[in-house]
Design goal:
single chain; alpha+beta; 7-stranded antiparallel β-sheet; two-stranded antiparallel sheet
Amino acid sequence: MNAGSIVAGWLIVTASLALAGPGLAQTTAPQEEILTPPPSIGSAPTEGPQWRAFSRSATSTFLIDPASVRQNGNEIHVSVARVPLNSPPGDYSHVIDDFAIRCDADQSRLTASAEAYEDGVLTEAIPVDEPWGDIGPGSFDEGVQQVSCGDAVPVGAIFADIRAYIDAGRP
C-alpha cells in the first residue's frame, strides 16, 4: 500500500462522514471529524500554528491549534478559534479562546478570549474567570480534550493562521 492509496482511503472516509449529516450544535463536537490518521499521512509543520477545523455549528467553524498545547501545572492549555461561516470575502473576524483542561479530572474552563474584527487583527486577550466544569461525553469540550490530552488529530488541511483558513474559503 502506498501513500497515495492511504490518502485516498482517508479522503473517502472523511467524505463519507461529512455526508452523514448536517453540522452539529455548538455544544457537541462531531466526533466523526476527530480522527488520528496514520503517522505516514501528511506533512504537518513541526513549528508554528497548525490550525485545523474540528467542529462546526450552523453559524461557525471551530479550529484548534494542536501546536499551542502547553502544560501549566496539572492543566493543559490550548487555543481554539471560532470563525463565522457566513461572513463576506475579506472579512477576517474571528475569536480565539484559551481553554484549560484537566485531563485526568475531565474538567475544562475558558481562561481568556481575544476578538479579531474585519481586519483580522486580534485585540488584547481578556481574562475570563470561568469556573471549572465537567466535560460531558460527546460535548464540544470533549473534542477539545481529545486533541489536547490525547492522540486525536482533526482530519483535514492545516492552516498557519486563521486568515489562511478564511482565504481558503472556510473549508
